[in-house]
C-alpha cells in the first residue's frame, strides 16, 4: 500500500506495514550535492558499511525543513526532541567476493524505535536503490529489542541449514529472506525509515563499483534520533 500526496509517498511494505517515506525533488540541489561529494575526502566506513564515507553538513535539509519536520513528527512520532546523529556521503566500494558474511544479507541499523535512517539518492536507477525484507524463518520484517535474541538464534539456524551466505550483494527473494518492497533511486529522492527495518542497498552491477566519486555509487546517509 502507498499513500501519495504530490512528491510525498508513504509506502507500507509487508505485513507489519512499517512506513517508508519517499520524498521526490527534496532539495532542488542534487547536482550541487553530487559535485560536493566528488570533491570530498573519504575514509573507510568501518566494519559494517561496505565502502567509504565523508562527512556532509546536514543543514541543507533546511531547504525543505517544514516537510521534513512534519514527516518526523507525524509519521515517526518525533514530537519532543530530534537530532542528527550522523551525516555522510557514502560510496559502496567492496567487491562481492570480499564482503563479510553479515554484509551479504539484509540488515537493520538499530533495534530501538528512536532512530530513523535517511537515504538521499543523488543518481538515477542505474546506481541502485534500497530493498526491504522479511526474514523467512522468523517472519520478522523489523528487529525490535524483544525480537533480537530470537533473530540471532534464527540466523545461526539459517547458517546450519544453508551454510554461509553466498558472496555477493543480496537482492530479491531466496531461502533466507523474502523481498517485500523496493525503492528505486532517482536524483534528489530522499527516503526515511526506522532503523529497525530489515533492508539492503541494491547494487545492480557490482563490476562497476568504484572508489572514485566521479564514477561510484554516491548517496547521502543520515541517522536521526528523536522522541
Secondary structure layout plus pairing:
Layout: E1 2-5, E2 8-13, E3 18-23, H1 30-39, E4 43-44, E5 51-55, H2 65-74, E6 82-92, E7 115-121, E8 130-135, H3 148-162, E9 177-183, E10 189-194, E11 199-201, E12 218-226
Antiparallel strand pairs: 1-2, 2-3, 3-10, 4-5, 5-6, 6-12, 7-10, 7-12, 8-9, 8-11
Quick synopsis:
With 227 residues, this protein is of the alpha+beta class.
General description of the model:
The protein is of the alpha+beta class. A nine-stranded antiparallel beta sheet has the order 1-2-3-10-7-12-6-5-4, covered by helices on one side. A three-stranded antiparallel beta sheet has the order 9-8-11, with no helix packed on it. The mean pLDDT is 96. The longest helix is centred in the last third of the chain and has 15 residues. The radius of gyration is 17 Å and the shape is globular. The chain contains three helices and twelve strands. It has a single domain, classed as Jelly Rolls, CATH 2.60.120.
Tally of DSSP β-strands: 12
CATH first level:
Mainly Beta
Q: How many independent structural domains?
A: 1
* SS-based class: alpha+beta
Strand content: 25-35%
The CATH level-2 architecture is identified as Sandwich
Tally of separate helices = 3
**Largest beta sheet, briefly?**
9 strands, antiparallel
What is the helical fraction, as a range of percent? 10-25%
Reading the helices and strands in chain order gives EEEHEEHEEEHEEEE
Q: Which outline best applies?
A: globular
Amino acid at each position: 500500500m502507498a499513500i501519495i500526496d504530490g512528491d510525498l509517498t508513504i509506502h507500507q511494505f509487508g505485513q507489519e506495514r512499517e512506513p517508508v517515506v519517499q520524498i521526490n525533488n527534496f532539495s532542488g540541489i542534487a547536482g550541487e550535492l553530487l559535485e560536493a561529494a566528488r570533491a570530498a575526502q573519504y575514509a573507510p566506513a568501518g566494519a559494517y558499511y561496505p565502502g567509504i564515507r565523508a562527512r556532509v553538513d546536514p543543514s541543507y535539509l533546511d531547504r525543505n525543513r517544514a516537510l521534513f519536520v512534519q514527516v518526523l513528527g507525524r509519521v515517526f512520532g518525533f514530537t519532543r526532541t530530534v537530532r542528527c546523529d550522523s551525516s555522510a556521503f557514502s560510496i559502496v566500494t567492496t567487491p562481492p567476493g570480499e564482503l563479510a558474511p553479515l554484509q551479504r544479507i539484509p540488515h537493520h541499523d538499530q533495534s530501538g524505535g528512536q532512530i530513523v535512517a535517511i537515504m538521499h539518492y543523488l543518481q538515477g536507477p542505474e546506481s541502485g536503490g534500497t530493498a526491504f525484507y522479511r526474514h523467512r524463518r522468523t517472519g520478522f520484517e523489523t528487529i525490535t529489542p524483544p525480537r533480537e535474541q530470537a533473530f540471532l538464534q534464527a540466523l545461526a539456524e539459517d547458517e546450519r541449514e544453508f551454510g554461509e551466505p553466498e558472496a555477493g550483494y543480496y537482492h530479491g527473494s531466496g531461502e533466507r529472506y523474502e523481498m517485500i518492497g523496493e525503492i528505486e533511486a532517482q536524483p534528489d529522492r530522499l527516503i526515511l525509515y526506522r532503523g529497525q527495518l530489515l533492508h539492503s542497498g541494491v547494487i545492480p552491477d557490482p563490476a562497476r563499483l568504484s572508489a572514485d566519486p566521479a564514477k561510484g555509487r554516491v548517496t547521502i546517509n543520515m541517522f536521526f534520533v528523536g522522541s
